[in-house]
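Blackboard transcription, Thursday session:
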Amino acid sequence: MADEKEELEPLPSVLADGLKRQVLAVQDYAKLSFESISNAFTPPFYWADTLEQMDVIGVGSLPIIVLTGFFIGGVLVLQTAAQFERFGETALTGDAVALALVRELGPAITALLVAGRNASGIASEIGSMVVTEQVDAMRALGTDPIRKLMTPRVLATVAMLPLLTAVSDFVGLIGGFLVAYFTLRLGAVQFWTRAIHALDFGDLVQGFAKPFVFAFIISTVACFMGLRVKGGTQGVGRATTSAVVISSVILLVTDTFITRLLLWAFHK
Amino acid sequence: MTRAVPPAESRGQFSELVPGEPVISFKDVRIGFDDREVLQGISFETLPGETKVLLGEGGSGKTVIMKLAAGLMRPDSGTVTVMGHDIGAMPENELLQFRRHIGFVFQEGALFDSMTVSENVSFRLDEEGVDEAEADKRVHEALRFVEMEPAIERFPGELSGGMRRRVSIARALVDHPPIVFYDSPTAGLDPVTCQTIMSLILRGRDLQGVTSLLATQRVQDAFSLANFRFDKSTNRIVRDKRENGNAAQPTNQAQRPPVQGGALKQAPTPTISKGRDGEAASIVENGAISPTNVLVLREGKIYFEGPADELLRTSDAYLKEFLASAR
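(Written on the board underneath:)
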């Protein structure tokens, strides 16, 4: 009987239910994100947990950020140099690398790497705690899991991602310079002077405003996915994948809008 | 009627346990998940110092009742009152304060696997900002109580299932809560470990005077609590000889005293705390220890409520079948 009833359910009703669930999920996400931030302004504060997460997210991500940043800078020079050579303007390589890295590639690629490395880690860690009732145990012991687990991760990511982006930008420029030096025979003074002069205040604001927003997206989506895990270890796996995919997609979509907004704000 | 041992220092608004007044009260509580109503109008009361054993088949709603009582879930309708407070209507931040005054032993222990045994047990004390030396002392006391002191620096992953439950009991009792919820504490354990766990629950009840809900599928757990008590003078678990009709005669091997010459015999004298021990001792000496009542759930409703011996003497076909299968 139940199966027959299910089969007879009209398509609009099924779609409406699906839509309601999605809207409800967005509402839950918004509430959770707001709570995680508002917790940062009222005691108790979990500074030790925040520092530990800063170490995991910041220091732990440093090798991969340095490595990828270096090669992204290098490959950027290789790609742009060919175009500049056609016009005999290889000196502009420094400008192109600096602008592309600081404005866009540095923040976006660093955020994507952190999303891949840390969003998965956060979602699986919190998700495992949910399925083994550790989160319920925390609540039963009178501790708010959002305050204890989520807020430190959000604060740590928001504090660390801009720093990682700065490192990535700098290492990327070094990588770009080395490739430019060996392939284009561009001098150090010429490269660095042009690279630094190409950047103005608006570019720096653009480059360092984005990581704050991206960090917030990565950490809140990861925690949200972890905290709503259902279905045992399989559910943890699904949440981990969703955390990386959804946070990556949202941050790239958001990137477009932030870029447009900041370009408008700085009259570019 | 017995009185629960007064709680540890400053329990604030949750400190009032009035003798004779129910500590836990469910009134027509309903809750459902995915179109299935798990609890269909549950009503019962638990008095101070009483142990209510929740029996029932898997999925009958035992764990849900405990999570509702702890405010970890909210009912769809009806009221859940604990120590005079409507738990279902309480905002989460107040619930967090409230939960600091209850103990909860989860089915699988739910220990924090990235923390050591010591850190697990001291978690609540650390959260409350208890002085490090005092916290350390109380952690050692609690672990000594469950005979897990040697494992103090080990991680939960290095412990057996029974050891994890014992640490979980220590974590629940470390702050001397007036109410403790035990969710299937003996599930999946071997008979000897089950006896050890039940002896710890008995000791918690008779030394600390806690009011408790205990969910289990093992009917002998109910009889262990109903028929035996911890005698502080001999430091042994003895048969309860009170004439209140609560002590039923065990009828099979599983209902033997939980520990006879086992772990308890070798156990050091529990030292929960000076003041509390004094009071707990008087409770035991007066012979007025907590009564144990059984509540059998069936298909979301209460099928039986009463003393364990009444359940044992039942002529109801379902209960007879349940008793036979749950042993």
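Lecturer's comment: Residues 191-208 of chain B form the longest helix (18 residues).
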